Amino acid sequence: MMTEKYIRTIRSFVKREGRLTSSQQYALDNYWADLGIDYSENLIDFETLFGRSAETVLEIGFGNGESLWQMANNHADKNYIGIEVHRPGVGRLLHLVHTSGITNLRLSNHDAIDVLKHQIADQSLDRVQLYFPDPWHKKKHHKRRIVQPDFVHLIAQKLKSGGIFHLATDWENYALQMKDVLNASDEFTNLSSDNTFVVKPEERPTTKFEHRGHRLGHGVWDLLYERK
Ligand SMILES: C[S@@+](CC[C@H](N)C(=O)[O-])C[C@H]1O[C@@H](n2cnc3c(N)ncnc32)[C@H](O)[C@@H]1O
């Protein structure tokens, strides 16, 4: 099927291995077994994974993991799943989770599209977070942007009715694309009063990429949608 091929061949990331610090490597070698989610084509049972039943939040592309760790630390009552393809970021967050002792965060080191399709049950998530996805500035690369109609439909499938999809970007042209794609979806309601953007919700910590945007003088756009 054409759409399936499109999603599978055009990736939203370029795999750059990067150097692992010794503490990131140590964390990957020693903490993954307890805190990592291996990729497979079987659905994850959240209750088994976390040893409890609780609201589940999934974040795509957590980068160095600092802001996701802060959220999980601030909301011990919720379960968090973070997905990131960049191994140093995964190693860094594994280290943070282990040393802080929080028990409500698990990590996947795989393409979020495959994880969502194959490992996440339909209507199982309370919230999906996508903060500062790769902006792919050049027009010829816009097809690599993760927010596309098929992606939005995939997120809609995985959210419970009433679940929230929260996005943020520091790239205005991408913010407008996000708004247009999501506003065109009949599966979501825009929670902004004028059908555009919202003020940064307090529960979202500033991310590493956002700090970089501030330094470069970029604006920030938050978008909040509810699954119908
Ligand atoms: C621009 S960075 C932002 C990181 C972080 N959210 C922040 O704000 O600091 C985007 C991240 O998304 C990750 N990423 C992109 N596409 C992905 C995918 N399909 N699955 C998992 N991670 C992805 C990249 O590896 C990168 O670390």
Commentary on this structure:
The structure is a single chain. α2 (22-35) packs across α5 (87-100). It is globular and about 45 Å long. It has helices at 2-9, 22-35, 46-50, 66-74, 87-100, 112-119, 149-158, 172-183, 208-215, and strands at 36-37, 56-60, 79-83, 105-108, 125-131, 159-169, 188-190, 221-227. 37% of the residues are buried. It has an 8-stranded mixed beta sheet with strand order 1-4-3-2-5-6-8-7, sandwiched between helices. The mean pLDDT is 95. It has one domain: Vaccinia Virus protein VP39 (Rossmann fold), CATH 3.40.50.150. With 228 residues, the chain is of the alpha/beta class. 39% of the residues lie in helices and 19% in strands. It binds S-adenosylmethionine (SAM). Residues 12-13, 60-63, 83-86, 89, 111-113, 131-134, 146, 207-210 line the site of S-adenosylmethionine.
Structure, briefly:
The chain has 228 residues and is an alpha/beta fold. The protein has helices spanning 2-9, 22-35, 46-50, 66-74, 87-100, 112-119, 149-158, 172-183, 208-215, and strands at residues 36-37, 56-60, 79-83, 105-108, 125-131, 159-169, 188-190, 221-227.
